[in-house]
Amino acid sequence: MSEQDYLKDISEIKNLMNKSSRFISLSGWAGIFAGVYALIGAAVAYYIVMSSGRDYLILDGYVFRLILLDLALIAILSVGTAIFITTRRAKSDGVKFWDETTRKLLMSFLVPLVTGGIYILIILKQQKYGQTGALMLIFYGLALVNAAKHTFSNIKYLGYIEIALGLICALYPGYGFWLWVVGFGVMHIIYGAMMLANEKKQ
Amino acid sequence: MGIIENINKVFDHRIRLGIMSILMVNDEADFNRLKELLEVTDGNLASHIKALEKEAYILIEKQFIGKKPNTRYSATKLGKAAFKKHINALEQLIMNKGLK
User: From CA B49, how far away is CA B53, in angstroms rounded?
Assistant: First the structure.
């Protein structure tokens, strides 16, 4: 074997290790869109609460239900856009969208996230809503850190930042809204833009 | 030092090298998953799996999912150690040649 063959072997090994264990068809655009939806959703929520006559949110049926709908729309639009962009990219890269790697990625992402979501609903039922923003940030951050081993590993840094913001939010619940805006809006746009810059480089 | 001695003849083939690469980073993989990733035919893959099994580098586990037979493969400790040694040897060879 020549030097060229050894080099080819090494790159083949690396390629297969990545292909078989990491899902890499995610695009920075998915992050940017998620961030933009979050910012728009936050502005809508701000407007709803302000025009309700109070400057804080309570569980008084109507306004609260509007906010929940707003949150659900943000989540559905973000996930929908991510799936759309990702399947398109996977197709153009010639890789399968649904395989063992995608399954592992989704499972490791969803277990902390769904746990957090159910937990938040339970404590909302018990009228404890001061920590909602903090819990959303913390569980989302944990989900990202957990999923990082099955996709771009740098996504864990986004997860650490979300967890840190969540803990700050737990200490200062009064700033919950703004920390949520930073965590779900601004951070997604920054991370998405960094990913895009990386994609362009390659 | 015999770097050449550390180059493992068993891994001197694209498909066997590929199978081991996949099993190094995944706890286990089934036949179809390997086939899909390596883009090879059934017969070709089966013969290389047999070669690796003979060296006790991989473990074969047969089971049934419903009525369908399902075979799962995983790397043994021996296989992982042998593969690491092989990669180190490859890297050393490349580095040594680069210096000259």
Answer: 6
